[in-house]
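Reviewer 2 asked us to include a model.

Predict the structure of this chain.
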Amino acid sequence: MGKKLRYSYTEKKEQSRRVFTVLMYLLVFFVLYASFTSFILSMRSMESNSMQPNIHVGDRFIFSSYLLYSPDLQRGNIVLFDIGEGRKRNFFDILLDEIIRFFTFQQMSVNKPGNSFYIKRVIALPGDEVSMTNFIMRVKPKGSLYQGTEFEISEKYYDVTIPQVPALWDESLPFHGNMDTLTLGENEYFLLSDDRSNTNDSRNWGPVLSSSIKGRALFRYWPLTRIGVP
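Predicted model (structure tokens):
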């Protein structure tokens, strides 16, 4: 009887040790995963129609997650940025968010109710002069004597959706299609939606600082019919 009790105790102790080991492996895995997706690469899905016709709801991308500066960005790049940069998250918040996003295939997040992350296109870089006429940007690169449309200046090919403007819609209303010339300061980027209707972008936020840019889209991995470099 005593031998059986000792065996049972030893077996339970060994089982507890195995469970503890598995839990520790899982914890280490998710700590490494959260660190990787916070500072190296991250996966994000498009949640609005603001980037049509080039990007659709449900498109999923791999973004670089390291801080980006002017040498790393080109006009036409797709970037992920945080308009709520003043709201700091500690590592445990990031870890919990990454775990939830991992198990829900990027469909759920602890930050969802107050989501401040947006996917937009870089139109102009620090030092550029920008203006808008009929929803099309004109860009004069820093140090250049000439300006051109955003499509002529961009290193990427893309199209935009131009809204049908009501007759009484003038420049006193938000999201209008004209903008006076603006010169971007140091570390400032001008980001726009590809859909130029009533979508939030630098027309109402103003230029975005490089510190708020959290990643550059490297690859679209879903859907398979549009897989490739954006």
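The first helix runs from residue 2 to 39. The chain is about 25% helix and 25% strand. We have added this to the supplementary material.
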